[in-house]
Amino acid sequence: MQRYIYSARDQGTQKIVKSVVQADSEREAAKLLSAQGLSPLDIREEADGNLLTRLTQRITSKDKVNFTRSLATLIEAGLPLSQSLNTIVEQTSNPKMRAVVQDIIVSIESGRTLVDSFAKHPQVFDKVYLALIRAGEISGTLEKALRRIADQQEKDAESIRKIRGAMYYPSIVMLVIIAVIIFMLVTIVPQVSKLYDGLGKDLPFLTAALVATSDFVVQFWWLVAIVGAAGIYFLRQYLHTESGIRVLDTLKLNMPPIKGLFRKLYMARFTRTGETLLSTGVPMLDMLRISAESVNNTYVSRSILNAEEMVKGGTALSKALKDQDYIDLLIPQMIRIGEQSGQIDQMMGKVAKVYEDELDEQIKAISTTIEPILMIVMAFFAGGIVMAILFPIYNLVTETGGNL
Q: Which of 26, 174, 342, 360 is least surrounded by Cβ atoms within 10 Å, i.e. has the fewest?
């Protein structure tokens, strides 16, 4: 679907409204506006903008949390929903987020429910968000639901931030290793090759292989760059296919040393989402279905959906989760206690806290472990190149000394 910027006249108030609507075509956008009681004056497709604009104006997790908390605070203070949203529009600095909120206001004022208005923007509000909004609307506790959403978003964003932070150091070290290797290939190795050519000596095998690699990189650097860029592009495209997603999900769950990290992340995400949904009044089966989508891993999602089918057939949740792959035994054990006490949501919250704490410890452990491993990798590659360069020079010095 495309995004269209429009200006239209509200048929009820006769005011001019400017916002953004999503539709398959300009004609479809006009139909949507007419259905909302608006008379379109101008509709045009939103320009994508350059890369810098897209990066600086994208809707971040912080934007979503600020919007959710502000809306909860204003509703709790007694302001009507429409007035609360208009107040947030004035306070929002991100143009894209402001356009989304303006579109929600128009949708609500045309008679749609809040959850239907939010559902028009799936790229901003996921199914967990919509489920909690729906539950809050039905129960009359919208402000509490919004606060729980904000808490959920903050915890999830914090977990992702910590994992990414743990990956920054090894990524930087690997870039340094690659830069050092390229530098030695294009500057030092050719000098060794010229030295041997001048003396009419044959290069040792390791040095000859290094020189051949160096010559290829120097002469066909453009080909190396094209192949490298194409490889990265096609890899990214593949990882967005169904097969690529399954491969990546398998690696996350089974490749040391990150498998423990991601398994704890998925368990924390599942139990935290489950606790948030159940405490807001979302039914058990809906909780399992939405949680399965929120964990963002094909195999963990399948296990949760298998449990959902068993619960639908009358099996207790703790028993349904017990024999599922990739579901830690601690979860069904704690849920069983919750079933006995009637506090499943609280037990899931406690389990989530356990996994979140363990995730912090796992990240620290990986950061500590990976540093010496990377140093060994750097020493191996750099040392191999240095040996390939120095070994023939040493042979030359030895032969020269022998002749003397």
A: 342
As a whole number of angstroms, the distance between CA 267 and CA 259 comes to 12
CA–CA separation, 171 and 177 (whole Å): 10
Return left, alpha or beta for 126; rule: phi > 0 is left, psi -120 to 50 is alpha, else beta. beta
pLDDT in tens, 264-317: 889 988 998 888 888 878 889 988 988 888 888 899 999 999 999 999 988 999
Return phi, psi of residue 248, to 5°: -65, -40
Give residue for tokens 């006769």.
Answer: 14
Q: How many CA atoms lie within 13 A of 12 on its CB side?
A: 8
Cα angle 346, 349, 351; round to 5: 115
Q: By C-alpha distance, which of 63, 86, 62 is closest to 74?
A: 86
Q: What SS3 class is residue 326?
A: coil
> Cβ distance 197 to 396 under 8 Å?
no
Q: Angle, nearest 10°, between helix axes 330-341 and 259-279? A: 20
Residue whose structure tokens are 């004609």: 27
- Structural tokens at position 268: 């924390």
Comparing C-alpha atoms, which of 372, 393, 385 is closest to residue 181? 385
- Rounded to 5°, the CA angle 320-321-322 comes to 95
Residue-wise pLDDT tens digits, 330-375: 999 999 999 998 889 899 989 988 998 888 888 877 777 777 777 7
* Strand partners of residue 267: none
Query: DSSP character for 120?
Result: T
Task: Please give the Cα distance from 17 to 107 (Å, whole number).
Answer: 12
Q: Which CATH superfamily is domain 170-404 in?
A: Type II secretion system (T2SS), domain F (1.20.81.30)
Q: Which residue, among 119, 122, 126, has the nearest Cα to 156 in the 3D structure?
A: 126
Mean pLDDT, residues 39-58 taken together: 62
Contact (Cβ atoms closer than 8 angstroms) between residue 137 and residue 70: no
Q: Which two tokens stand for residue 36?
A: 């909302």
DSSP string, 124-172: TS-HHHHHHHHHHHHHT-HHHHHHHHHHHHHHHHHHHHHHHHHHHHHHH
Conformation bin of residue 8: beta by default, left when phi > 0, alpha when psi is -120 to 50: beta
DSSP 8-state class, residue 188: I
3 state DSSP class of 21: strand
Tell me the C-alpha distance between 4 and 215, whole Å. 52
